[in-house]
Each structure stands twice: as structure tokens, then as C-alpha cells.
Specification:
The structure is a homodimer of 593-residue chains. By secondary structure, chain A is α+β, with helices and mostly antiparallel strands. Chain A is 34% helix and 20% strand. Chain A has 18 helices and 22 strands. In chain A, the strands form five sheets. The first copy, chain A, has a seven-stranded antiparallel β-sheet, with helices on both faces. In chain A, strands 1-9-10-14-12-13 form a six-stranded antiparallel β-sheet. In chain A, a hairpin with a 3-residue loop joins strand 21 and strand 22. In chain A, helix 2 runs antiparallel to helix 5. Chain A is globular, with a radius of gyration of 24 Å.
Chain lengths: 593, 593
């Protein structure tokens, strides 16, 4: 049927961006969270300080942290008393598969296949407290037997096929930042396990500026994506707390949520179509603005945690970089007033890119993390504090803070600010400035380093999250806190537990609640197991209070036991049957979900 | 673990609404679209008129319709020359299954099991042109052998179980408004087929006003849902053109889109969780604001077209009834200018609930549908026309119209109007008033009746839709129109084809395009097959031009052959394998997708 096709308007415009900057080898730590150049440490004066120059807090001493933590935990903390980690703890023996390894070496360059014990270890865990405890003080019983780094989709396909031919199995790996034991290898796996590391597939393949779409490889981290898009004036806007290290493929595999989802949406809304390599062949579909053609199997990979296929790339919606990006913060006399504020903000329909409400303990934590001040700044700060406490009558032990991030055009942001601050006043809120808001968001990335530091100082900590209907949220917070205190007391653990919550995401029907839990473990036998036990009790409490199993962390192996409380038996049977039908040999052997 | 659970804030508030008004028996036509009291007819003066009192156009003569259609189609149309339909054409013999029928009679009241031929016929088709031709001039080769009307979920479960025990199969049925041959029974089905009509499950079970959610039974039509929610100040906001008759379960099964999706979202966004009865058992999951627990099998039913399970209810997001609802319309000198307008509206981020851009032919069609005017109104209208054509210099043969529907608070609507009309001016748009806009939207429901009227007057017509990237949309429109003209000419069909398009939905990445195609078929052998052939060619052209297989109509049996052009072989294999795994006996025997 030869006939002229008319030209397109608005004009198509496809950009192929430059590759992202390359990280220097070893830039990312193997034994702890994050970049090797950054992290909490104890300085010679016995104060906590933050190393490096990467974050606002970097290079600064944080003198109030330990004293404050002592007060909260009800224990004496000696900065020089460390529970020295023994990383790397014993790495299990390899299950060799010489035929598989020879075939891989022939297919990939030798530098892209490794059986180095430390790399194998790193590919066998994420960042749960159990993971980190195991590599420092315990042991992982099973880790991958080799790590491979394919560089394109064809190589991914071939690795999977070689695994099939040689009776091995494959576990895909992105940034390795999961907090669900998703990368833990099943202990009873007798086959050779290849960790398929996708980090070399880190390109934005193209940007379609007119239609605001881009095709991005699965192994690109948030940093790499924003660098490549940003050069051409675009953003994906997906910013989970792990965004520096976690990857698009990982976000898809865990059904991730970003802190700016109010403006940009969660990952399932950003992803238009998924490309994946599976034991059955490639899943692919041309993306469409919207389509009604029944279930798209490639979308079943969203949240599939490596069980069904290996995401190689995805086409996503992108956004122009916002002209304006402004922070804000509001103090409220109580969590309840703050909660009514965020409820009304959501109901107003005018919702900033990010709205986060900290409880009192988390607000205090934020204060304790403030770097040492100059004398003048200290006076100013003392006066401000006086005003808040004396003049406004806020109580230091009950006040809370809400941080705000506005993105958009100047007029959009201005309108949002007007609306949001008007609502804040109605609930007794007091504006606390852009600086405090910005600090709150920037701390998100630095704070990720604190868990490893605390673990070395006899404090074991972890976060967990849920989503819940508006009407059940406050009761859930109270119930979980009460349960943690009970569980802590019941076990006669030292001092007091730290349990704190923030509202991190707003939805029409409810919120995401993000908890931090920690306790002092000096003198406690098997602290990691005790922690896991209490966390399990907290999860039970969450479910009993109407919360969901997970808002964005996922299930992995950590929460598997709770799945029957979420899905009916038939729903679980469908999931099992799908896995059996499309991967009968369990070639994708991560054992999650 | 006995401890006090704290009370909830904001307070939970659950409402159980009254049931919807009951339609009088026979209110809906069996042989044609819609309510029996409404429809196009020829009055004694030989003019087209619309019967009844249900719509704005009801009770009015439409004197310009036939003369205009004559001009467009290039044929002489005699209002009294009817191709008399022979409804009901021969209804196929029943495949009896006495054991099944006895068991059903024992389980349901006799009034809720029927083998009436006309009801069986009605449950064996939707509203494609093929369907309507078959029941009036052709024949359906296979229809359900009985129809059952369960009244609750337990009865749905039992019907499915009895079918299994007695070797029958089940096809769920909602409003019967599909346009994809989805209710056509597979001709080679030897088992007894029970059509499971869900229309008696039409209740809103509860409304949660605080969390803005509701649980609604699958058989409730759009009318029934809005009635039940509206009494309590809420709306679902889902308004497909079929909303008077189509049901929530049908919307889920076809992955429907409503005309106000810019404000309320499409069905997959509205639905928080699906409850379904399946051969494997019940699918259910407590709804959560957002959850990361891997794929939810109940959501695989979205777009599943009756193949995987029977949706019995869903929890959905609801919205307060908007304080303000205003219409608007803008005229543009050309489709291209109108298209650039809708593109800029989407890019502005300020998008009214509905924005629809008609091409010139569809604009003319809207004019031709105007009822007869009083003398004064006729003069006013002539003057307006003069202004548009003479003063503004618009060409009658190229100008187009965009209709707008604004919903929200007064300030929201006012801000949207300001923004939208400012953009319209930039593209040479001329405001044409709220009345014309409102007329456009109200016509949507009345226009659904025209297809049956035209068929009786030797004009066969059908709509089809796609979604496509912004940059490909205009070329796609041109290509499809050209292809239709070619196909029409190639077959030597009478006169000229009618092929017209409108943009009905805007997305960040593209649009939904909705085509109408018609031709005069007097003297044409097998016109329904000829039409289907040309529609198939148009679909090929759509796919070649970058369009999707369907935006919201679905696949059914009509578009099955094109699935390999959308999904990779592995993706299709996954769909087949899932069906085989969860319904190995093909108990759900609709044969779609």
C-alpha cells in the first residue's frame, strides 16, 4: 500500500545524550552505605563529624548528636567505645560450574566476569540491618558464585541462556540498596548462582523532547539519569532516598516511590513500557500514551523483585526541569495539628512536590544533627528558639516540623506557597523558613550513612514503612510506638527504644508512614535477631492497624511471611502459577516475593 | 497482645447509601442502542427527529441532517427508503445441559435463570457494526444457552462452580455495550454457555467520606453509580460515552477511559482494588493508598475481557461533586491550529476536565444535528455565522471546534478558563460560548443512537480509536483518512466515505484519536463484511503510523489478529500461559484477548 505519509506536527525531536560521567573505581563503599569519601566518624575531640565534601553537612562536627542520643536512648554512649566490625566476615565457598564459567568468559571479556570473594559478598546482600550485621559481625550463608557485568541487552540475553544451558541460575542486581533481603541467596540453592550486575547499562538511549519520553537503560542510577537528562533540560523527577545509588531497573523491580511523587508520580506512573529479557524470550511493546489491550506482561515485572525477568530498559515519561525550586518548613505545636495540616493540603488539591511531616522525636533528631555553630549563629539560634518556645508557646517535647519542596514555574510555586501557608496558619503552624526545609531534604542523603556509624557504636537501627488510610494513620503511629516500647521492655533491653515516624507521601486516600527504630545493644545476645523479632512485631501491629505490608520497600525475603495477610489464597496461587509457567526451571533464582 | 488502640483522626466515616432507582422492565432496547423511549426517527414531514424527552435534543426535528449527509456522502437519501431490519434474526439452537440447569434453578430463583431466545441473543453481542448487522440482517452463529442473574458474590461463585461441575462454561456480561465483539460466543464452543449477567449487583456498598473511597458492585452502571454517590455529595467522575448503560465491571474488564479523565483519571487509576471470583478462588486484597508487594493478580483483571475471572466489586477513589461545572467552546480556522492549541493546553499543566477537538467534518456534523430553529434564533444564528465567516475570515470547509468542560471550585475553574482561552487566542481561536460546548457534550449520549438509525437508512457506520504520540498524531489522522478513501474507491462503493476524527483525550505523551467512519451501502453485497475489511485496513494504517491497537475499546475478538503487532511473542506466551495456569478448563469461555 504505497502512499505518501504526511509529516508530523508538533515535530518529532529525538536527542541521543552523552553517556554519564564515570565513577572512579571504588567510589562506592562495599562494607557500608554510600560513597567511600563520605560518612559519619568520631573526631579527635570525641565529637561526631561527617567526612568529605559531598553534602551540606560534610566536613562539619555535630557536637549535639551523641549527648542527645544518650538522653533519648537512656544509656551512656562513649564515642570511643566501638563494636569493631569484622568485615568481610567469612565468604561462603563457591559452587563452581566450570562449563558455565568458560562459556561466560568466552562471551564476555574476562574483566566482566569475577569470582572475587568481596564482590561476590557485596552482590549477596542489600542494606537491611540483618544484611549489614551479617557482613560485619555474622555471616552470609550463601552468596553468588560469580558476578557478571553485561554491557548490552544481547549480553543479558546470552548470560541467561548460558545459565539455562549449564544448569546455573541468575540473580539480577542493580544498586544493591534494597532493604528487604532481596539479594540474599536462597541457602538451599545447589546450582551455581550468577549475579547479573546491570550497572554498565547506564545510558539514556534517547530523549524525545516533543512527546516528553525517554528510553533509559535499567542499570542507570538516579544520579546518572538526572545528569544525562538534565543536560537537555529534563528530569525524571524520581527521587527515592537511595537515588544516588539505586537504579531504574531496581526501582521497577521494587515498585519504588520517590519523595517528589506528588509532582512526578511513582515509578509505575513514570514507566510507560518495560523491556525485559526472560526465560521465555524478550518482553517488549511499543509505548503508547494509553492503551487497552489487556494486561501487559512486561508490567508484571513492576515489583517482581527479579523473579520473572531482567529489566533491561524502560521508556519513561520525563519533565522539563522546573524553573523554580523552593524549600519551606512549618512548625506545629503537635503532631495532630501537623497531620490535620497535611490532610488539608492534600484535600486542597494544591500539593507541593514534597510534603514531609516529622514527629517530635524526628524533629529533635534533626536539631541534634545541626553542625557546630559560630558564636553569632548560636546566639541567633538561641533567640529563635526562645521565640518559638516562649512567645509562641510551643513545647519542645511535642512540637513537630513539616518540610516542603515546591517545584514548578514561578507562578505555580507562588500559588502553592500561598495556599499551603494559609492552611498552615489555620492549624497553628509557624513558618520556619526555607533554610530549615532545605536542610531537611539534604539530610535525607547524608542520614543514610548514619546506620553503619551507629551500628559500630552499639546502636542497631532500621527503617520500615507502610501506607494507610487517612483515618487510620494516627492510630497506627500510636499503636506501633506502643508496641515497640512493649517489645523492648519485654526483652529487658538496655535503656529505651528510639521509635519515630514521619509522613513522607500524601495520597487522596491516605499516607505513607516511615518509621525509624533503634535500640542500644551492648550486652544483648544476637541483637540482629532481636531487632528482626521486634520489627516483625511492629509489622504485625501495622497490619492489625489497617496499614499495608509495604509502601515502597517491597517484600523480598524479609516480609514474605506476611503475604498471606495481604493476598487471598487464590491471588497467591496465581502468582506462584505465573512464576512456574514462565520460568519453570527457576532460572531467575532470587527466591523473592 | 492486648493493648488499647488509639482512636482515629481524621475520623473515619462510613456511609451505606440507598440502592439506585430501579429501571422499569424493558426500559433498555434489545435490538438497538440505548433506552427504548429515545432514538432517531423520520417524522411525517420526512425530517429526522429525536424521540422522547431524555436528552436536550429529544422531541426536536433535525431538518438539516439528511440534506447535509447527502452532500457529504455524495448520494441521494430518501427518508422513507428504509432497509427494514429483521430483528431478531434466527437465534441458534440451545446446547442444553439439564444437570447444570437443574442445579442453577435450585440455587437461584427461577426468575433469575432464563433461556428466552431474545435474551440469549442480546447476551451474545455488543454494539459493533458486525453485531448489529448480524441481529438485524444476518445471524449470530452461537449465543449463550442460558442467562443467569446472580444477586450477590456468593451466587456468582456458585454459578461458576456449578458450571465446572457440570461441564459448562461462563461468560460474564455487564451492560453489553462493548464494541469489540467481546460477547460473541466462540462458534466452536460445544459446552453449554451461561451468560452471567451482573446487572443485579448494582449497589454502592459503602462510601468512606474521609478517605474518599467507595466499594461498588461490578454490575452498577454509570448512571446508578452517580445516583448513589451523588446523594452523598460524591462522584466517581468516570464518564465513558456509554456511561448510561455500561458497568463498573465492564469498565474494568475493558480498561475503560472516561471523557473527564483529565480530572478524575482513567479506570485503572480510579480502581484501588478489585474483588473477583475465579476458577482458582476469590481474588481480594485490602486496598491501600499505595503498595509495593509485587503484582496484584486482581489487577490482571483490568482489561482481561472476561477471560480470567468475574469482577464482583471494586474499591475506588471518589471525589466531591464539583462546586462548578462550566462548558466552553472555541473555534479555530484549521485542525492544525486547534491541535497546536490542545498541545499547548496539555503542556501548560492547566487542563480542564475534558478537552475535545473536532475536525471540520465533525464540526459540520454537529451543525447539521442542530434542531430546527425559531425564526428569531435562525436570524441570530445566521448573523453569527456571517461574523465567523466574513469578519473573522474562517472557512466553512476548514474551521474546527474544540469543546471544553471545566469542573472544580469557582477559583479553579476561573483560573483554567483564563489559561485556556489565553492559549486559544494565541492559536487564532475564537470563543464560541458555553452553549455550544454543552451541546457538544450532551450530544455524545444522543449521538450513540444514530448508528442504528443510519443502518436502517442504508448507511453503515462505526467508530474506532487509538492513542498516539503528539508528534505522530496529525500524520496518523491524514494517513487513516487517505487510506479509507483509497479503500472505499478501490471497492467502487457508492458516493464518498464519511471519515472524521476528534481528539478526545490528552496525555503528557500523546492523545487519543476517535474516528467515525461510514458509507452508503445500498446495492453493496455483504456491507458489514466490506465495512469490517476497510476498518481492518484502517487499523493497519493506524499501527503503521505509530498508533496503538486500542485506547479504550479493547481487543475482544475484533482486534485479536493484531495482537502480535503490539506484543512480542514472549509477552503473548505469558498471557496464554497465565490463562492456562489459572483457568485450565477454560471455564471462562468468552475467547477474548
Amino acid at each position: 500500500m504505497a502512499h505518501a505519509h504526511a509529516g508530523a506536527h508538533p515535530e518529532a525531536s529525538r536527542i541521543v545524550p552523552e553517556p554519564p560521567s564515570q565513577l572512579p573505581p571504588g567510589a562506592e563503599s562495599l562494607d557500608v552505605w554510600g560513597f567511600r569519601d563520605s560518612g559519619f566518624e568520631v573526631n579527635a575531640a570525641g565529637q561526631v563529624a561527617f567526612r568529605g565534601s559531598r553534602y551540606a553537612i560534610s566536613g562539619k562536627a555535630i557536637p549535639n548528636l551523641l549527648p542527645w542520643a544518650e538522653g533519648v536512648l537512656g544509656v551512656k554512649l562513649d564515642a570511643f567505645d566501638r563494636n569493631t566490625p569484622h568485615y568481610p566476615t567469612a565468604v561462603p565457598e563457591r559452587v563452581a560450574n566450570p562449563g558455565f564459567e568458560a562459556a561466560l568468559a568466552a562471551r564476555l571479556s574476562p574483566a566482566r566476569v569475577s569470582s572475587d570473594p568481596q564482590l561476590r559478598l557485596r552482590h549477596g546482600h542489600g542494606h537491611t540491618q540483618e544484611d549489614m550485621w551479617a557482613i560485619k559481625h555474622g555471616a552470609l550463608r550463601r552468596v553468588p558464585d560469580l558476578v557478571v557485568w553485561p554491557e548490552d541487552e544481547a549480553e543479558v540475553r546470552d548470560v541467561l541462556e548460558l545459565a539455562r544451558v549449564h544448569g546455573a541460575c541468575v540473580v539480577p542486581c542493580g544498586g544493591g540498596t534494597n532493604v528487604t533481603d532481596a539479594l540474599r541467596c536462597p541457602e538451599d540453592e545447589r546450582r551455581s548462582i550468577a549475579s547479573l550486575d546491570l550497572r554498565r547499562l547506564n545510558r539514556v538511549l534517547w530523549i524525545d523532547a516533543t512527546n516528553r519520553t525517554a528510553q533509559i537503560q535499567a542499570g542507570a542510577t538516579g544520579l546518572e539519569i538526572e545528569e544525562q537528562l538534565g543536560r537537555h533540560g529534563f528530569t525524571l523527577g524520581h527521587e527515592p532516598d537511595s537515588a544516588e545509588h539505586s537504579t531504574l531497573g531496581g526501582w521497577i523491580a521494587t515498585n519504588a516511590s520517590g519523595m517528589k511523587k506528588n509532582r512526578y508520580g511513582n515509578i509505575e506512573q513514570l514507566v510507560l513500557s518495560v523491556r525485559a529479557v526472560t526465560p521465555e524470550g524478550d518482553l517488549e511493546r511499543p509505548p503508547a500514551p494509553r492503551e487497552s489491550v489487556g494486561a501487559d506482561p512486561a508490567r508484571w515485572l513492576i515489583g517482581s523483585e527479579g523473579q520473572l525477568g531482567i529489566v533491561t530498559s524502560a521508556s519513561v515519561e520525563i519533565f522539563p526541569l522546573p524553573a523554580v525550586r523552593r524549600f519551606g518548613s512549618v512548625l506545629f505545636p503537635s503532631f495532630e495539628q501537623g497531620f490535620r495540616f497535611v490532610f488539608d493540603v492534600q484535600r486542597s488539591g494544591v500539593v507541593p512536590a514534597s510534603v514531609r511531616l516529622m514527629d517530635n522525636l524526628q524533629f529533635q533528631f534533626g536539631q541534634a544533627l545541626k553542625p557546630a555553630k559560630t558564636r553569632l549563629a548560636a546566639i541567633k539560634s538561641a533567640l529563635e528558639k526562645l521565640y518559638v518556645l516562649r512567645v509562641r508557646g510551643f513545647e519542645a517535647e511535642s512540637m513537630v516540623a513539616c518540610t516542603l519542596l515546591f517545584e514548578g514555574s514561578e507562578s505555580e510555586v507562588a500559588a502553592q506557597e500561598r495556599s499551603v501557608y494559609r492552611i498552615a496558619s489555620r492549624h497553628g503552624g509557624m513558618q520556619a523558613g526555607a533554610e530549615n526545609g532545605e536542610r531537611g531534604y539534604q539530610l535525607t542523603f547524608a542520614i543514610a550513612y548514619i546506620r553503619d556509624f551507629l551500628l559500630d557504636h552499639w546502636v542497631i537501627a532500621e527503617s520500615f514503612e507502610t501506607s494507610v488510610a487517612w483515618s487510620d494513620a494516627q492510630a497506627l503511629c500510636a499503636n506501633v510506638k506502643q508496641r515497640i516500647w512493649q517489645e523492648h521492655a519485654k526483652r529487658g533491653l538496655p535503656g529505651r527504644p528510639f521509635i519515630s515516624v514521619r509522613v513522607t507521601q500524601l495520597y487522596e486516600t491516605g499516607v505513607c508512614l516511615y518509621f525509624y527504630f533503634a535500640f542500644h545493644y551492648k550486652g544483648v545476645a544476637a541483637p540482629s535477631e532481636v531487632f528482626a523479632d521486634i520489627e516483625r512485631a511492629a509489622r504485625d501491629e501495622i497490619l492489625r492497624s489497617g496499614g499495608s505490608l509495604s509502601h515502597h520497600h517491597g517484600v523480598g525475603k524479609l516480609r514474605q511471611e506476611f503475604l498471606p495477610r495481604v493476598f487471598s489464597p487464590a491471588a497467591l496461587a496465581w502468582r506462584r502459577k505465573l512464576k512456574q509457567a514462565v520460568d519453570p526451571e527457576n532460572l531467575l533464582g532470587a527466591g523473592n516475593g
